[in-house]
Amino acid sequence: MIKRVSANHASFKAVEFQKGFNVVMAERTQESTKLDSRNGLGKSTLIEIIHFCLGAKASKGKGLLVEALKGWAFTVDLEIGGRAITVIRSIDEPNDVVVNGLPDECPIRAKNKKGRLVYSVRDWNYILGVSFFGLSAVGEGQKYQPTFRSLLSYFVRRQKDAFSTPFEHHRKQVEWDKQVHNAFLLGLAWENAVDAQLLKDRKKGLESLIKAAKTGVVKGFVGSRGDLEARRARLSAKAEEEAANLSSFKVHPQYADIRMQANQLTEEIHAEANQNAKDQRMLSLYEKSLVEENAPVPNAVEKLYADAGIALPGVTLRRIEDVQAFHHTIIENRRQFLEEEVSRLTRAIIGREQLIKEKSDERAGIMEVLKTHGALEEYTLLQKRLLDTQNNLNSITATIDNLKSCETGMSQFKIDQQMLQQRAQRDYDERREIRETAINLFNRYSQGLYSVPGKLVIDVGINGFKFDVEIERSGSTGVDNMKVFCYDMTLAAIWAGKIAAPGMLVHDSLIFDGVDERQHALALEIAAKDADAEGFQYICTLNSDAVPYGEFSDGFDIKKYIRLTLTDKDQAGCLLGIRY
Which residues contact 381 (CB under 8 A, 6 or more apart)? Predict the structure, then answer.
């Protein structure tokens, strides 16, 4: 319960609240002009201050953390479990919360910071969660657990979006958040809502894994599990072959030099063989010439001389014997030349053949080394090929394993989903009395407004809890806002009887926007009556010209519940005493 809200500036309009019904009134004065407005007087700011001191997240430049409020510090006096607690949080140091009055058995100790005992915002939220909602038994750090800040936002709604639907305190609230926190507040098995969301996560993960495996995670491969098994068998055989080749591969440290020697020998052998081929052709020619070389026929020489005498008369010719002797000398010299050339070429050819044989034998030895050894570069290449094959094999195997896991996981998911649904339905039936208490409270509040009972619908199914409210003539802004009012009153009444409870319900004037004056008056009277009867605190902000004075029941005087009046006469009349 909130006892007092104050600040460290004298201009601030401190306000004290009591148990039961409390009103903060924004009033238009006679002196105000048409340009003046009650918007900005501080009704919503008061609610922001309450949230701020109760551990709301603070972002620079938003909410209260603006330059105009630099140096401000706000204080909220609370009553928790019969103890008086004072909370101070400053704009300049929003991460530190000063709390006085906590019992010695408080689960978290304050930390000394610059001579002050302060709590972090996180620790303060934990303490409030224990004190207001008994959250200490909830698994801290686990996913989808109820949180103090979200639970409190159903008791202290702020900003327009908080009044759009009973089960949301802001428009972007996700489904699991709505299910878990509303189930917790209504006394239902909220753990089933957590498990339902965890199952949804599992299913989403399995579906993503199946999709990834079937749409080409493995290097663009698309196919069924059977296709993947066939590819794995082929890659496995390939990997074994490449591994065997690699294990038998021998690296020679001078492999490159030896290969160059082999190439050089090959070039030399080819050169010698080519030269032998040339000499062999020349040898054949000389041998043929040697066989065909004969002495001249005598008659031919005589005839030659006779012809020469006719052709060359008066010329003195040598004696035929001299000519024949000369001719024989020439032939003999030529024969000797041919024989020497034949002998030389034969020796050269034989020498080259021997050299070719030697070089061939040397090359054969080198080639044997090259045959049984390899270069380091080749070994590295073989390693890379094997590694690539093994990577592909591992990827295929992982995909197959994932598909197997997915198939098993989807089967197990369906089993777990059915088991959860059965458990949730069993818990739903076992908590019938709790559920009906909430339903009857909502019916009573809605009937008090519209003379006909509304309906609080609570269902549980395969996707968790489903909540809805129905009130006749719903659809207009006013009736929809009254759904929120009835639901919040239901929660306040449920929690009023608990040891760890917020003990309060705070509504901004926004909840009454568009509400018919009769229902507006009835809502305020119901809030005043039940807050007193059930033992909780109800705080609301109102605009004076929207108060349905003429519709109140006889004996109901709203003025006696006004704890603070804000005016638009000048800036001194607003909550902070300043405009910003």
Answer: none
